[in-house]
Amino acid sequence: MRETRSALRYSVTESPAIDQVGVDERVSRMTKRSIKKESKLQALKLAMSMLDLTTLEAKDTPGKVRQLCIKAMHPHDLLPGIPAVAAVCVYPNLVRVAKETLEGSGVKVAAVATAFPSGMSTRKMKLEETRWAVGEGADEIDMVISRGQFLAGEYNFVFDEIAAVKEACGAAHLKVILETGELSTLDNVRRASDLAMNAGADFIKTSTGKIQPAATLPVTLVMLEAIRDYYYTTGKMIGMKPAGGIATAKLALQYLVMVRETLGQDWLNPDWFRFGASSLANDLLMQIVKEHTGVYQSIDYFSKD
Amino acid sequence: METSKKNKAGSAARIGVLKTYKLYVDGKFPRTESGRYFIFKDTKGTALANICVASRKDFRDAVVAARKAQPSWAARSAYNKGQILYRIAEMLEDRRPQFVAELQQQGLAAKAAEEEVSVAVDRLVYYAGWSDKYQQVFSAVNPVESSHFNFSLPEPTGVVSMIAPEESGLVGLVSVIAPAIVGGNVVVVLASEQYPLTAITFSEVLHTSDLPGGVVNILTGTRKELVGHFTNHMDVNATVYCGSEAGHIKTVEENSALNVKRPFVYTTDNWKSEEMQSPYRIMDLQEIKTTWHPIGK
């Protein structure tokens, strides 16, 4: 098996060092863009269409997942013109429920796999879980990397694991969760990004949402720049998904600005950029309604996921 | 003012440090996001302070903070809420000279200023006392025909926006805030436009009184600009308007219809009077919940 993958490789020396002060400086400039009126409304709707509406709790039930799927397809029917979200993200055992509920809507089903969120399991189990989730109907797989091995410098182990999971995914898209909150430094974030892309990731994703800090603007910038450099080198586009901790529309718009200014217009659609979030949906809706009515909204008038 | 005289006198002089009067939102003292201010002058025309002119967005931020603070404040025991109100009274009493001086800078005579502070302190103590009593007085066990134990009790309305009395910079402010918060509500208050100093200094009293951040939020600015925003926000459950300008009252009542918030308009100009302290002011901002509890015959 390893021989077939030897065509792909990654060496840690390929990744440039990251200047943290410079990153913070660029981020702080990007958060000061003023987006108002029509452009704001358009950006809010775009953010809505990029959502991976997520429920990843041990107490999740088929009922809760069905409810979330309805919300995904009909975020707020009182106001016409609000797009459905990109995908619903659930645990593998609830993929079938989601798939059935979303039938024909165009909303995709994403499943977390590979012993999410810790990744502390054997490769055999991880691959089995991945194949099973795809068999249940998952369009996208969100895998976690083995942070322990990564931090111990066993890059080849992590590389091979991602490549193996990619193979197990078949036609399903693979998002690789780096869990940047456990990677300590931006240098490590950059290395993990480069490694994941070289190993076959379709998307790279910041976090599981189970570890603090989750997605942050600086981490996302580093990952976006890795995607840009990878594109310049190989001509291949990779998607980006910040997840966890993005709860307000204002912050979501700052992420969009960052994507636009780092990767350009080509990435500004749900095929190449996603938000992993749950409470963000209602904040986006409240802002969209506010843009229409001119009146600040209350959560009381929006469906709970 | 004394410092500036000394400055002119010469070498021993030091430059006076004027206080920066800012907003009070979420237990912090931010400047207005709009960056606007007006210069407050005392009766002699001496510039005393730059006062923030709060904007729609400052109000929005305050409502977000208030909403966040509401459940845990309402969940505190009546005893604890009473203690905190009493603590506010203690801290206000402790700062009496400062408030008297500020009220005089705002144009009150010395005696009237003393009286204003006394009434404000007493009013806080009065409502602190009602903290664990109004529920008993206004609750009821209701006779019903079926085999139910049926009872009604008051619960807080929620987030309340308030346009504080214009003429009475301290007593007026205390008279609207105290009955609201003792009942488990949280408030966003627009301070008197003419007399804003005492409102901001009062927020420093609140800040040192164990009152959780976000329960009381105080903005300074103009009624003309903010009355519409204070009343049309969908996440505000009641509005208290103190004043008698017909245009404002119409706005309050029309905007309240948007999400059926409760509008209260107080037109009195004598906030010191005994009539302006009453358990009914607490009950204005309470909802009655009735419970039907099945029992065997």
What do you see in this structure?
The complex is a heterodimer of chains A (305) and B (297). Chain A is of the alpha/beta class and 305 residues long. Chain A has a single domain (35-301), classed as Aldolase class I (TIM Barrel, Alpha-Beta Barrel), CATH 3.20.20.70. Chain A has helices at 2-5, 20-30, 37-49, 62-73, 95-102, 123-136, 147-151, 155-169, 186-199, 217-234, 249-262, 279-293, and strands spanning 51-54, 87-90, 108-113, 140-144, 173-177, 203-205, 239-241, 275-277. The termini of chain A are far apart. Chain B is α/β, with parallel strands linked by helices and 297 residues long. Chain B has one domain (20-290): Aldehyde Dehydrogenase, Chain A, domain 1 (3-Layer(aba) Sandwich), CATH 3.40.605. Chain B is 44% helix and 19% strand. Chain B has eleven helices and ten strands. Chain B has helices at residues 2-9, 56-75, 78-94, 96-105, 110-130, 134-138, 171-182, 197-207, 223-232, 246-256, 279-284, and strands spanning 37-41, 47-52, 140-142, 148-156, 159-163, 186-190, 216-219, 238-242, 262-266, 286-294. In chain B, the strands form three sheets. Chain B has a five-stranded parallel beta sheet, with helices on both faces. The radius of gyration of chain B is 21 Å and the shape is globular. The interface between A and B is small, with 7 and 8 residues.
